[in-house]
Write the structure tokens for this entry.
Amino acid sequence: MKTDTTRTPDHAQVIALPPLIYAAFVLLAVGLQWLYPLSMGSRSTWQWTIGAILLTAGALLALWGKLTLDRAKTCVHPGGSTRTIVTTGPYRLSRNPLYLALTLIYLGVTALLNTAWPLILSPLLLWLMHAGVVRREERYLERKFGEEYRRYLRQVRRYL
């Protein structure tokens, strides 16, 4: 029996799960710090405070985004099939609040680790997320939802 290999899968075909991408960059930064220490100065209360604020803000934004997707009964996993365009909750302000949340968490971890490596690596991380995840998701959603998604693109910014 021959299968149809020309059919496009009903998911975004991202390069990897976004939390794993962020975790890989944190681990890379820790490894680089071990090989070549590059601290952001002596550890201070402001680093802990800023780190805690960023981690908390990121976690709350991620929770809000996930609950909003759950209420809409659509898939949060980028490898899953999207059932609808969600335009409520944080998705009325940003098309990618979950990735903003991961970035806030990444910056919070950076402050807590007291190493400049995550900041040095951040342009590569953000480019990889944009090209390997966000743009692929956008193409998938436009293919799947057409004009409904194009209307959403015109109404809501990609990030902030």
Notes: The CA atoms of residues 81 and 130 lie 20 Å apart.
